[in-house]
Amino acid sequence: MSSRVHTLEVVEVIKETDEAASLVFAVPDELVERFRYHPGQFLTVEIPSDRTGSVARCYSLSSSPHLDDELVVTVKRTIDGYGSNWLCDNVSVGTRLRVLTPSGVFVPKTLDADLLLLAAGSGITPIMSIAKSALLAGAGNVYLVYANVGIESVIFGAELAEMIVEFPDRLQVVHWLESERGLPTVDDLAELLVLCERYDTFVCGPTPFMEVCRAALQVIGTPDKHVHIEKFQSLTGDPFADIVVAESSATSTAAATIEIDGRSIDIEWPRDTPLLDVLLGKGIDAPYSCRAGECSACACTVRSGEVRMRKNDTLVDADLALGLTLACQAVPVSERVEIAFDQ
């Protein structure tokens, strides 16, 4: 079993709305270092299934590493969503679930920058972690636009109200309720965001909402490098299964230097084998979740050289511009490559 797979106990279940609940996990002392995380990251949770034995789902952490000792994921039911409905219906205090250690690249590079946070529905989950962390540990202003169908579907409403009182000069929250104002349009959002064009921007929510946000950000002139998009994906594979790494048949390799967990490793990288498989095959405990290009758990930075991704469902243009790649999909192009797992 990978050292990234652990069992955590739920110590509290918080009903946020009729359709959403927060699950609070206790982290044993011996696992504290393994579960250190950045605001905006997620946990991958194994959920029992009568049909397939189990399924894996990624849920963003709504807790802040600068405030909370426990890990908190917030889950909202989705129509025909097996994972979310199972968790909301079956998890109680004392439930033990297998999880992978935190991962993901939807993370501010600095908490001192001014942040524009755009969320809809359960997209508030990673946004909440970022907002709390920035206000507690950073120095910038936070402007949050949060869209929901109606007041009854607002997650963290009371907590947001308390944050406004505690940080009146640094936090501004705009609640956009569809029941009162209709769906937000590009023009609506551009008008709201016109003074935030240079803010570091984080967007999370349903695809139509994120598309409107991206269009509005283009209207006000926000540079692409300032825009970070989080996508919700249902994993098709089983990241909790035993890892089997296929033998390489390549006759050609690239020379690679990998920075991971505070050390530098030189390897020969076969040109037909994804980097993650090479590292796991050598017993190197690299981060992963889906191993299928469907999440960002294995994201790493190409410091020099060139790689090619076989598949990419998660990294957006701003991520690629920063040199990010997915280790589970990356194969070498150049003769030498330097890569750092620094997310």
Automatic annotation (TrEMBL):
<feature type="domain" description="FAD-binding FR-type">
    <location>
        <begin position="3"/>
        <end position="109"/>
    </location>
</feature>
<keyword id="KW-0560">Oxidoreductase</keyword>
<dbReference type="GO" id="GO:0050660">
    <property type="term" value="F:flavin adenine dinucleotide binding"/>
</dbReference>
<dbReference type="Pfam" id="PF00111">
    <property type="entry name" value="Fer2"/>
</dbReference>
<dbReference type="InterPro" id="IPR036010">
    <property type="entry name" value="2Fe-2S_ferredoxin-like_sf"/>
</dbReference>
<dbReference type="InterPro" id="IPR001041">
    <property type="entry name" value="2Fe-2S_ferredoxin-type"/>
</dbReference>
<dbReference type="Pfam" id="PF00970">
    <property type="entry name" value="FAD_binding_6"/>
</dbReference>
<dbReference type="InterPro" id="IPR017927">
    <property type="entry name" value="FAD-bd_FR_type"/>
</dbReference>
<protein>
    <submittedName>
        <fullName>Ferredoxin--NADP reductase</fullName>
    </submittedName>
</protein>
<dbReference type="InterPro" id="IPR001433">
    <property type="entry name" value="OxRdtase_FAD/NAD-bd"/>
</dbReference>
<dbReference type="InterPro" id="IPR039261">
    <property type="entry name" value="FNR_nucleotide-bd"/>
</dbReference>
<keyword id="KW-0408">Iron</keyword>
<dbReference type="InterPro" id="IPR050415">
    <property type="entry name" value="MRET"/>
</dbReference>
<dbReference type="InterPro" id="IPR001709">
    <property type="entry name" value="Flavoprot_Pyr_Nucl_cyt_Rdtase"/>
</dbReference>
<dbReference type="Pfam" id="PF00175">
    <property type="entry name" value="NAD_binding_1"/>
</dbReference>
<keyword id="KW-0274">FAD</keyword>
<keyword id="KW-0479">Metal-binding</keyword>
<dbReference type="InterPro" id="IPR012675">
    <property type="entry name" value="Beta-grasp_dom_sf"/>
</dbReference>
<dbReference type="InterPro" id="IPR006058">
    <property type="entry name" value="2Fe2S_fd_BS"/>
</dbReference>
<keyword id="KW-0285">Flavoprotein</keyword>
<dbReference type="GO" id="GO:0016491">
    <property type="term" value="F:oxidoreductase activity"/>
</dbReference>
<dbReference type="GO" id="GO:0051537">
    <property type="term" value="F:2 iron, 2 sulfur cluster binding"/>
</dbReference>
<feature type="domain" description="2Fe-2S ferredoxin-type">
    <location>
        <begin position="254"/>
        <end position="343"/>
    </location>
</feature>
<keyword id="KW-0001">2Fe-2S</keyword>
<keyword id="KW-0411">Iron-sulfur</keyword>
<dbReference type="GO" id="GO:0046872">
    <property type="term" value="F:metal ion binding"/>
</dbReference>
<dbReference type="InterPro" id="IPR008333">
    <property type="entry name" value="Cbr1-like_FAD-bd_dom"/>
</dbReference>
<dbReference type="InterPro" id="IPR017938">
    <property type="entry name" value="Riboflavin_synthase-like_b-brl"/>
</dbReference>
